[in-house]
Specification:
8-stranded mixed barrel; 19 helices; 5-stranded parallel beta sheet; globular; alpha/beta; about 35% helix; about 15% strand
Length: about 575
């Protein structure tokens, strides 16, 4: 049976068994880069292998690092045979563009209309040929047309970069930026004032191969560029017992980016650095929580740029004028009303972010019902980070709180309600697990100075329980400030480890304690990604639960006071 035509975004030929994903997936934290198996314990396809499969997925979600995981799988021969989406998708598409552009590895990427996607989803295997997707021995035939790209308007300096007048690396970066712009349907590029590179996390050799190849080609940043958290504490990893076969390439990756002009900020919270982006400022940021916070809370403008594209933007100073750079891409299309009980504390914010992402997985939401709660900056950080784990959207609006809620939150198409019962069910889902705690994880995204102070004040010099560890991950600037004011000394007196440079989504053993099996965190982001990344039980708790566990070694599963 012939169906409506799909779009061939990245042409090629492939065949394999069909794997259907019922909901979007983040490849970073959701797929093992060594095997291609789904490791996200919250995903319905947990345990399924994607290697060699024709993967059908509505779109991707979550981390910008998914492109790095796909490149890793492509270079090791464990990638999906092809990717077929039902809607727009950037992160994995960019990984496939880089695999083809720089390494000659072809992964066809196709977008299908709803009816054709559904028909293909019921088949067992598929073949992609240049002009069609075929399945069930030819009984399902979906014609493919090339993506129709409007003319991409390029400036004189864009053309100089593309022609190689400013070096091979700048030319390669510009080729990738233009390929992505065309895939997104952009008709122009935009100047950015700054960039933030997320591809410095060592997911495997592919990230390092990309960076060192760009350095070999002579790449240099042309706008001020900060760097995300990396995968080791750069100065101390040897002392911490990290195996050289991991520590050396992880440090080499960071060093390559620094040599190419990036600032060794090594934080996943670049909005907390001095001189954050201003309202309306066009920036080229990656890292899902950073992008969502910058767009939503600061009112700056950036798309959710996949890893590798972030560095190409830093090298060219240009980004595709698409997505959240445009008013149209920032407009709220769904209202999410939260029935927030009186007296909610800081534990409400990661929960609201997580559930809002599930309620608005593919569109910008306007969140209602929170104005009276008066969230602090760290509360908004926790909400944005958790939202980024369950939604593909690059931003959100909060009525009465975020700067563009009035102007761009105005006319949602529908409304979803998160009831008190839904809040309680969501909390139970993320809080479930044994009472005995081995590790308390604070700082995903990186802890602020205020959060470090709060832990120090509550512990008040008391020693941690028995074999329990408390680790706070944070940026170098926060470590320096905490040291200067004595907060760091107070935390150390209690036995708390404060680790710079890496974050919970990049931490590995033995910095992550070998004996730890049950982890308690106040981060919705880490409660989501942690089980897949660490192989441990990771429970979401309140700040008070974390302190109780630190002092007693236990925190029973229970609703927070404001929900019970």
């Amino acid at each position: 049976m012939q169906h409506h035509a799909g779009i061939s975004l990245l042409p090629g030929t492939a065949s394999g068994p069909i794997v259907v994903m019922a909901e979007p997936l983040s490849f970073w934290g959701g797929v093992d880069p060594a095997t291609g198996t789904v490791i996200d314990v919250h995903h319905p396809s947990h345990g399924v292998s994607l290697a060699g499969a024709v993967v059908l997925m509505p779109t991707s979600r979550g981390s910008c690092s998914g492109s790095g995981v796909l490149l890793e799988l492509a270079l090791s021969g464990r990638c999906p045979a092809a990717l077929i989406f039902a809607g727009p998708e950037d992160t994995l598409t960019l990984g496939a563009i880089v695999a083809a552009e720089m390494f000659g590895r072809s992964i066809p990427v196709v977008r299908l209309p709803e009816e054709a996607f559904a028909a293909l989803a019921s088949a067992a295997e598929a073949e992609i040929v240049p002009d069609a997707v075929l399945a069930d021995g030819g009984r399902v035939q979906i014609p493919l047309s090339a993506a129709v790209h409007g003319d991409l308007q390029l400036s004189t300096s864009d053309r100089r970069l593309l022609a190689g007048d400013e070096g091979i690396a700048a030319q390669q970066a510009m080729r990738i930026v233009c390929a992505m712009a065309r895939q997104q349907g952009a008709t122009a590029l935009v100047d950015v004032t700054r960039a933030h590179v997320d591809g410095c996390i060592y997911a495997g050799p592919a990230n390092l191969i990309f960076a060192e190849k760009m350095e070999q080609l002579g790449a240099r940043t042309r706008v001020p560029t900060t760097m995300n958290a990396i995968s080791v504490d750069h100065a101390n990893w040897r002392r911490q017992g990290v195996a050289p076969e991991f520590g050396e390439p992880a440090a080499r990756l960071a060093d390559a980016y620094v040599r190419m002009g990036c600032r060794p900020s090594f934080t996943c919270a670049p909005y907390s650095l001095p001189g954050p982006p201003a309202l309306g400022e066009a920036i080229g940021w990656s890292e899902s929580n950073a992008v969502i916070f910058a767009n939503s809370v600061l009112g700056a403008r950036t798309a959710k740029h996949p890893d590798f594209l972030d560095f190409c933007i830093a090298v060219s100073g240009r980004a595709p004028l698409a997505g959240a750079f445009l008013d149209e891409g920032r407009r709220a299309r769904r209202a999410v009303r939260v029935e927030l009980p009186e007296g909610a504390d800081s534990s409400a914010w990661p929960l609201i972010g997580y559930l809002t992402g599930l309620a608005s997985p593919d569109r910008v939401p306007l969140i209602k019902g929170l104005a009276k709660a008066r969230p602090a900056r760290d509360d908004l950080k926790a909400l944005c980070a958790a939202f980024g784990t369950t939604s593909a959207a690059a931003m959100l609006h909060i009525e009465g709180i975020t700067p563009e809620a009035d102007s761009l939150g105005g006319s949602p198409e529908d409304e979803v309600v998160i009831t008190r019962a839904a809040l309680a069910a969501g909390w139970r889902h993320l809080n479930d697990g044994p009472a005995g705690i081995d590790l308390v994880a604070i700082g995903s995204p990186h802890a602020s100075l205020e959060e470090c102070r709060a832990v120090a004040e509550r512990l008040d010099g008391h020693r941690l329980a028995g074999n329990l560890s408390v680790i706070i991950t944070t940026g170098r600037d926060v470590v320096a400030a905490a040291e200067a004011e004595g907060t760091l000394a107070g935390l150390r007196r209690s036995g708390v480890d404060v680790v710079p440079d890496l974050c919970w989504c990049s931490i590995t053993r033995p910095v992550f304690p070998e004996r730890a099996k049950v982890v308690l965190t106040n981060s919705g982001k880490y409660a989501h990604y942690g089980p897949g990344l660490s192989g441990c039980t990771v429970r979401l708790g309140t700040f008070e639960d974390c302190i109780e566990a630190a002092l007693t070694g236990a925190a029973p599963a229970r609703l927070p006071g404001w929900l019970s």
